[in-house]
Design goal:
single chain, 321 residues, alpha/beta, Purple Acid Phosphatase, chain A, domain 2, seven-stranded mixed beta sheet, 6 helices
Length: 321
């Protein structure tokens, strides 16, 4: 499965994105001539699973609301089956309990638009979430109609009407430490889940990226790559989704696995200066999220900015494996 197409911004976005509003951070995606939009249209009646992916959201401030509004506009145009939240759901120190007021101020109230209020949200834990009561985020699944975190790590599947099976494997990457029994056990759990899965597409989600060229903390990236990469390759994973870095990024395919960072859910409030490494295929900062569209034939990855429009994307094809 390899890159088949790329999608880019329209020229009208360049000036608006060149300087991220309010934080003085240059968005490198606005300084590049990106290719034109090319996304295969669905055939009449072709089933597809469409989901949103957002990370590093939980500030409760205006810029998180701005990203949520862009998500709502996108869902109005193209409904999602669910959203994935990639951790750091609650800055700075997680939640204290299922009754913590942050559930309202940083989740329920933020994603309250009509197109989002009933949307299931499958979440993983981030390092900031581990500063609080981790079990409360699991337990809130019984309190909320849309928050989904049945355990600190878990797996689930979605089947399209044509029989295509999509598997999602949700990690707690904060504990993925090769020097601990807990980290070794977590990796073994993932390997077992991947080996047993009959999914046509395998998507692994965790807070920390495995590969990222915009490395604010390079030592951590090296540890994640060394500890997890071979498990992903051996398990036939198609896509790894991470956050932690407050950017949108697409890394080249490495032995069949694509790596995406979607950590811009708090908008420009959490943006920081980044450079576009030549090892990256796409890099942006200042707010946004990712949309995945999965069919039997392909998996489309779209990077969406604050206007709700796709700036860049690629297509992974099953026949290119």
């Amino acid at each position: 499965m390899r890159l088949a197409a790329r999608v880019s911004r329209g020229p009208s976005l360049a000036l608006a994105l060149a300087l991220v509003a309010g934080c003085g951070v240059v968005d490198p995606s606005a300084e590049r001539a990106l290719p034109p939009v090319v996304v295969r249209p669905l055939a009449p009646g072709e089933p597809a699973l469409v989901i949103g992916v957002v990370g590093d959201t939980g500030t409760g401030r205006a810029d998180q609301y701005e990203v949520a509004e862009a998500m709502a506009r996108r869902v109005e145009r193209e409904p999602w089956a669910f959203a994935v939240f990639l951790g750091d759901n609650f800055y700075m120190d997680g939640v204290a309990s299922v009754d913590d007021p942050q559930w309202q101020t940083k989740f329920e109230d933020v994603y309250a638009a009509p197109s989002l209020r009933d949307l299931p949200c499958y979440a993983v834990l981030g390092n900031h979430d581990h500063q609080g009561n981790v079990q409360a985020q699991v337990d809130y699944s019984a309190r909320s109609a849309r928050w989904r975190m049945p355990a600190t790590h878990y797996a689930f599947e979605e089947r399209l009407s044509d029989g295509t099976l999509v598997g999602f494997f949700m990690l707690d990457t904060t504990v993925l430490n090769p020097d601990t029994a807990q980290g070794q056990a977590h990796r073994a759990w993932l390997a077992e889940q991947l080996a047993a899965s009959q999914a046509d597409w395998k998507v692994v989600c965790g807070h920390h990226p495995v590969y990222a060229t915009c490395r604010k903390r390079p030592n951590h990236r090296t540890r994640m790559a060394a500890f997890l990469e071979q498990t992903l390759i051996d398990g036939g994973v198609d896509l790894y989704l991470g956050g932690h870095d407050h950017v949108l990024e697409l890394s080249p395919s490495i032995e069949g696995v694509r790596y995406v960072t979607s950590g811009a859910g708090a908008g420009s409030d959490k943006a920081y200066p980044i450079e576009w490494s030549e090892a990256a295929e796409y890099v942006a900062t200042g707010g946004g999220f990712v949309v995945l569209r999965v069919t039997r034939e392909d998996l489309v990855i779209e990077f969406v900015r604050l206007a709700g429009e796709t700036q860049y994307a690629c297509t992974l094809r099953k026949d290119a494996r």
